[in-house]
Design goal:
The two termini are 28 Å apart. The chain has a single domain, classed as Beta-carbonic Anhydrase, Chain A (3-Layer(aba) Sandwich), CATH 3.40.1050.10. With 233 residues, the chain is an alpha/beta fold.
Amino acid sequence: MCSLCSERPGRRKMLFGGAGLLMDSMSNGSAMAQPSRAADTPDAALKLLAEGNAHYVANQPVERDFSSGRASRAAGQAPFAAILGCADSRVSPELAFDRSSGDLFVVRVADKYVTTDGLASLEFGAAVLGTKVIMVLGHSSCGAVDATVQTLKTSNSLPGHIAELVRTVKPALEAEVKKPGNDLAERAVIANVRYNVQRLQQAKPILSELIAKGQLKVVGGVYDLATGKMMLV
């Protein structure tokens, strides 16, 4: 068990108190200048993501003047959702969810698995910036997932640090590779998303505590490259 997982209640209070101090220092004493959050509850945040994706799929995005909000964004940020997504160049969360700059706190890594740095970023988003939902966002035709599946099936190794990426993803996919069926690529993407959702839901001390208080939700979704539609899984 990691040291963070065994923190005592007093230590947890110090962590959250430190987050508050950090937020205060970031605001530079100008709370009135901070932008407003588009959603203040996990359910409201998830609804906004679903509605935005529906706009995107229907090719009816909300028209926005992105340049007009630059001054307010310089004063601070108030994202309502965080996205743990793949580094794939074909997936753009702000477009897929039809949101403005400043709405989404995005962490991206090939195969969207939880790293220590990624977890710290998501904790910062939730505890300091106030994100209400974290979505682990997978997508169809994921090259990193396919590479991991092939490595598990053939026991071949990959060059450089790519091998480390595959090694990290393996635990999420090992059971699926052993199952029969022609839909392994789709099942593997979903399995990887669900595995990382569970890791974030259990991440102590910050995320699990916010979830227990009803202040945060962690969900999983899969984005279809061809249609642009996001499906919760």
